[in-house]
Amino acid sequence: MPEITDANELTEISKLKQAQLAIKEVKSLDEIKRLVDQSEALKGYAKAQQLSKEILDDITEYNLYATRQLGVISAGLPKAKSVRQNSEYQTAVIGVPKSEALSLAGIDIRRANEAEKLAELPETKFIKVIADKKAKDELTKTAVIKEIQNINRETKRQGIPIYQPSAFNGKYDVIYADPPWQHEFSDRGNRVAENHYPLMPLEDIKSLKIPADDNSVLLLWSTAPILEKAFQVIMAWGFSYRTCAVWDKEKIGTGFWFRGQHELLLVGVKGSFRAPEAKNRVSSVYRETRRQHSVKPDFYYEMIERMFPDRRYLELFARRKYSEKWDVWGNQV
Description:
Rossmann fold, 2 domains, 9 strands, elongated
């Protein structure tokens, strides 16, 4: 996008289709930031010069496309990944980690998260939101972002399936679960769990028919305030509590008694499932900086496979499929 020095050059911004196609080809974080910043400066210029609403809408639309592409690039940046080194699991990074890459480009994490929200919506729906706001004469960046956040949130809420894991073919001897717990209280703001995924009441979680083998192990995520609920789920699913591990997230979160910095991975056993061999046991504490809301480190998949090799692995309430070794069940996969 060229530098703008006078009002006449603004006519180039009206060639939106060509400009939007060009934006989608941008892969450089520095370049996309330049385009976002330039379009925002251009919008301020247009307002100061009292240019037409049509031109202002074109600039806003261009800025939204550039911001969305920023979100696409940001979401694809590499994150810390646990790897095995000298028989120990340590945190490593393939390429420049996301936080460092954003910092080097002069992009704060809040701006990147806002852009990623735009990128979450499929492009066809993104285009429709812009068209609808234009038709209603309501096209502003704030209005579009708010509308897309509402759509994303509603889509996730409507996506809660009342399904039973018994639909799986067979049973599993290793079950890994991160339920969408419904807390009795929470802090306000965009970090509230319900803003990220739909929640389930305790009784609904307990009533699920888990396809667990007669001899199996359950690894269940819980936060400190809901431990009592987690123990109820362990028993309701037919397991007996054995022990727990701690994930130190290295960053302080929210909380009323303590500001939480850790989560607990509870272990329950059904039947005569045996503990891992001594050579496959790891420390009960693992440290890795938390990422997006509720995303757990890859380390724990690797840990489970190491502790219980050559088993049938099932992840409940999954948000992605870690590898072909794992079967998954969840409304975000």
